[in-house]
């Protein structure tokens, strides 16, 4: 009898192992400074349409698996014209109608939603466009394996009203995740307009909810900067990884799909104009993930 039970247990273990799958994928998040030039130049030299076209061509050249962009407004057509990703979201439009949030991907998704923030603060023109977040269920190149992706652009500014709005933004995002991504692997990426070094920061809402910040984990060895401590300015393009951006990538594992961050890197040196000038007033950030099922 013991021999039979052992054989059955071994067989079940082999079936279990044969059904496991694993792989990797990478995500780039990049605020591309696509507000109309008559509103702002974002402190970026050169023609904005030309810069958007250059960004699109570099998306195609480096072939990242998933790219989340923010502030993709007036020069969206130039961006997409020079990119070749197989799957791309349909833009929600220029200001004041669009959110500026789009995703370019090598892989398809099964669902997609745009959600505007319920709360904004006027001082940085945050209420002039429907900023918020997008949700998609990405299909990885292995049968039936999916990961929920969120791309966001939070309220900007340093006044207390901005801090209150960002706090409300993160609460709204977490409520949506709780309703739509229960037990699922999730990646949050985008322009959070928040830093650990800021007093009154809101990012703690996400980390306390079980999300791991790839920068904290891989670059800082798990140590968060203290709120109110001096910030290391990244500069643009960033030449180091130990500085802190407002652009972040966070993640958690799910019940059936495990995620782990393999590497975090500023790839800003790849996104420059021919003369070496910046293409945006933000740094592009790339994180590679390993995924597995059990």
Automatic annotation (TrEMBL):
Listed A to Z, the keywords are: Signal
Keyword Metal-binding present in the record's keywords: the answer is no
What would be an example GO MF term here?
phosphatase activity
Q: Which InterPro entries match?
A: Endo/exonu/phosph_ase_sf (IPR036691), IPPc (IPR000300), Sph/SMPD2-like (IPR038772)
Q: Which residue intervals define the domain Inositol polyphosphate-related phosphatase in the entry?
A: 59-218
Q: What does UniProt give as GO cellular component?
A: cytoplasm
User: Which Gene3D superfamilies does this chain map to?
Assistant: Endonuclease/exonuclease/phosphatase
Name the UniProt record assigns to this protein: Inositol polyphosphate-related phosphatase domain-containing protein
């Amino acid at each position: 009898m013991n021999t039979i039970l052992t054989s059955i247990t071994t067989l079940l273990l082999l079936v279990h192992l044969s059904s496991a799958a694993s792989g990797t994928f990478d995500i780039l998040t990049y605020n591309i400074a696509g507000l109309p030039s008559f509103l702002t130049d974002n402190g970026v030299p050169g023609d904005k349409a030309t810069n958007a076209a250059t960004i699109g061509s570099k998306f195609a050249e480096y072939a990242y698996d998933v790219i989340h962009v923010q502030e993709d407004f007036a020069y969206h057509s130039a961006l997409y014209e020079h990119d070749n990703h197989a799957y791309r979201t349909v833009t929600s439009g220029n200001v004041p109608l669009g959110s500026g949030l789009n995703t370019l991907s090598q892989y398809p998704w099964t669902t997609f939603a745009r959600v505007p923030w319920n709360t904004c603060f006027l001082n940085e023109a945050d209420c002039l466009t429907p900023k918020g977040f997008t949700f998609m269920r990405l299909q990885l190149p292995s049968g039936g394996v999916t990961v929920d992706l969120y791309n966001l652009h939070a309220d900007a500014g340093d006044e207390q009203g901005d801090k209150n709005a960002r706090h409300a933004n993160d609460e709204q995002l977490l409520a949506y995740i709780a309703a739509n991504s229960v037990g699922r692997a999730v990646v949050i990426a985008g322009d959070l307009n928040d830093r650990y070094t800021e007093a009154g920061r809101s990012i703690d809402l996400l980390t306390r909810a079980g999300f791991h910040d790839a920068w904290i984990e891989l670059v800082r060895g798990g140590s968060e900067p203290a709120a109110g401590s001096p910030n290391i300015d990244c500069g643009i393009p960033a030449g180091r990884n130990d500085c802190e951006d407002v652009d972040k990538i966070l993640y958690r594992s799910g019940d059936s799909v495990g995620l782990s961050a393999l590497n975090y890197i500023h790839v800003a040196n790849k996104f420059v104009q021919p003369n070496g000038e910046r293409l945006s007033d933000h740094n592009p950030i790339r994180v590679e993930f390993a995924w597995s099922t059990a």
